[in-house]
Amino acid sequence: MLPNPSFLLLKLPLVVLRRICANWAPIDLLVLSNVSKRTMMRLHSVIPRKRFKMEVSFWINSRAFVLDGTEEHVIDIPYGQKNRVNWEDENHESNFIFEDISIRNIIWMFEQMSYVFNTDIHRIAMSADQCFGNVSRILCWLNHRQRSIEDLRIDFNTLEDIANIISLCQTLNIKRILDIANFSESHTGKRLNPKFEMDNLWLRANNLDQWITLDNIMDFDCIHIDLTSFAFTSSDMNRYLKAWVNGCNFRMEYLYLGLRPLDHKILTDGVEVDEVNASIVRSYNSKILIGPTKIEGGTDICSKDGRRATFQQIINNDYLYPEQRFPFKMVVWPKDGQ
C-alpha cells in the first residue's frame, strides 16, 4: 500500500483540472466545493465564465436550474424552515410564507452556487405571497450582487404593495423580461415615473394608473408592452396615437392595454387611418407570446418614419359595467411583413 493513498486533486496542473471539471455535473462541483474554502476557490478559477447559466426560484419548492449547454440540471435548495410545511394540507402552498431565516439560507446557497459555477443569476422567479415581507430584501440583494439580470418574474402578489415592488425594479438593469402579476392595492399616492427599457414588459394590476401615466408609457423602450388596467380616455389614446406617429415607442412591436370602451371617432380624430375589412385576418407571431396574435380587420396607421401598425379594441357588449376593461391591442408590422 502506498504511504499516502489520497488523490491530491488541487495539485493537478490547471489545464488537467479544467478538463476534469468539464466532465462533472453541477451537483458534483457543488458537493466538492464544500470540502474547503480553498477547494471552492480552485473550482471557481477553472470553470469558464460562460459555461453555465443559472435560473433560481423563491417558491415553496425552492430550486436552481443550472443550464450546461443544452442540458438542464435541477438542484433543490434546503432552507431550514422552522415551522415545517404540512404537505398533507391541500392548501399548504397558499398558506405558506417563508421565514426570514429561510430566505437568508436560500440567498446564501444561491450565492455559493453563483460563485462556484462562475456565473451571474440570469433569471429569478418568485411567489410574492410566499416571500411576503422579504420581496424588497430579495430585490435589494439582487441589485447589489450583479449589474444586470435577464428575466425577473414576480407572481401571486396579494400582500405586497406593487408600488414598492416597481420602485425597486426600476433600480435593476433588466434586459429581457419583467413580469409582475399583482392583485394587491397600492398605498403609494405619488407617481413613480418609471422608465422601463427591457425587451418585454408585463404588469398586471387593477390600479396601474395610480403611479404610471400615459406619458410614462410613451417613454418606455420595450418591444412588448402588456399592461392592465387604466382609465385612459378616448382623447388620451388619441394623443398616444399621434405621439406614436411622431416616433414614440420606436422599438415597440406589440402593445396591450386594458381600457374602458373607447369612442372610435374621438380616438382617430386628426389621425390618418385606414379601416381594414373584418374579413382580413392578420397574425403577429413572436416567441415571447403564447401563440400568434390574430387581428380581424382593425385600423391601420403609419408613422412618419414608415412603420405601419394596426390597432383594435374588441368590446363585449354583454359585460358593459363601469369597471370592466377591454383589451386595446396594437401591432407594429415588420417592414417586409403584413
Automatic annotation (TrEMBL):
Residues 1-22 form the signal peptide. Keywords: Signal. PROSITE patterns: FBOX. The keyword ATP-binding does not apply. Residues 6-56 form the F-box domain. Pfam families: FBA_2 (PF07735). This is F-box domain-containing protein.
